Amino acid sequence: MPRMLDVSDDVRAEIGDEEADRLLAGENAPGSYDCTSCRTPGDSKQERTSTVLFVGDETAVLAFAHAGCLPSQVVQVTEEQLQGAVRSIGAAGEMAGADAAGAPHVTVPEQAVLGVTSGLVLVDGELHPALVVEPTSAIARPGTTGTGDAFLPLLVEQGFTPVTELASVPPVLHGWSVLLAVGQLHAVLQPSLNGGQPVAWWQAHQPLQVTESWRAAANKHQQALLFAAPVGSIGRQPREDLLRGALDRAAAHGRLVAAALPLAGT
Fold first, then answer.
1. Which residues contact 256 (CB under 8 A, 6 or more apart)?
2. At residue 14, what are phi and psi to the nearest 5 degrees?
3. Among 87-91, 123-127, 150-154, which stretch is predicted with the lowest mean pLDDT?
4. Which parts of the sequence are annotated with region: Disordered (predicted)?
5. Which one-letter DSSP state was computed for residue 252?
6. Is residue 97 scored above 50 in pLDDT?
7. 68-93 pLDDT, tens per residue?
8. Which residues share a beta bridge with 128?
9. pTM score > 0.85 for this model?
10. Which of 174, 233, 239, 253 could form a disulfide bond with 229, CB atoms 3.0-4.6 angstroms apart?
């Protein structure tokens, strides 16, 4: 049975046209799966599903995600990260040719991917456009092999402000910006290390649509609020009131940082 799969050009280039066509035809793709982003069940027979290929030095592992959580993409990881952070997702079948040593079970690595949710957040009596960022797993400090989560400390070092309650608009973080073009969200930009053009801290594989009310608020304020929390703090919230509740809980537990980022683009 054909699957509602998104296979990006990058993923197709890695796995080959024959394998990609088999996936789309439903020969090698699972029906049900655990989303590699939000960890909740999905069904590629009934909802749009992204193929996400994690590539190490010797191993490539294909995972699946709700299309609303992640676009289809190739994620480069180290072999150590890939081998040390995979877990089986049960009867998901096998992906032929995925492993240099043979045919592994399709597995979901814990390599972090940044999930981004847009929504309007009421702060000090006024609605502000917000982006909420939560990685899919713990973020280690570069150059370390520990199991701790350094996501928030790393952002604080970049200038983000710890938030204990959403009572006021966080300070503007100069040098960072939100790239919005033709009403679509393209990237979150950060300063370049060499002082050149800003570089993407997060970039959408395909431009993300935002609501008309979000765009209107962004145009009014000429900035967007970025909230970031460690994995497991926010989750996938289908409504803005639930998103706000999750933000309040994360803030109360000291698991939230924020900044106001100017708009770049139109």
1. 162, 163, 227, 228, 229, 233, 247, 250
2. -80, -40
3. 87-91
4. 25-45
5. H
6. no
7. 777 888 877 665 555 544 433 222 22
8. 121
9. no
10. 233
Place of tokens 């180290």: 78
- Partners of 92 in the β-ladder: none
Q: Which residues pair with 108 in a beta bridge?
A: 87
Do 101 and 118 share a structural domain? no
Dist. CA 108–CA 192, nearest whole Å: 32
The residue written with tokens 């967007």 in the block is 224
Number of C-beta neighbours around residue 264 at 10 A: 16
The dihedral built from the CA positions of residue 141, 138, 170 and 177, taken in this order, carries a sign that is positive
Residue-number span of the structural domain to which 246 is assigned: 114-265
Q: Which of 56, 87, 109 is at the close of a domain? A: 109
161 and 258 together in one domain: yes
Q: What is the mean pLDDT of residues 156-162?
A: 94
Q: What is the CA radius of gyration of the chain?
A: 19
Amino acid at 46: Q
Token pair listed for 131: 């982006």
**Tokens (6 digits) for 241:** 């009131």
Say yes or no: 118 and 233 in one domain: yes
Q: Are residues 172 and 241 in the same domain?
A: yes
Q: How far are the Cα atoms of 104, 164, 205 from residue 246, in angstroms, in the given order? A: 37, 13, 26
Last residue of a domain, one of 55, 80, 109: 109
3-state class percentages of the chain: helix first, strand second, coil last, to nearest 5:
20, 35, 45
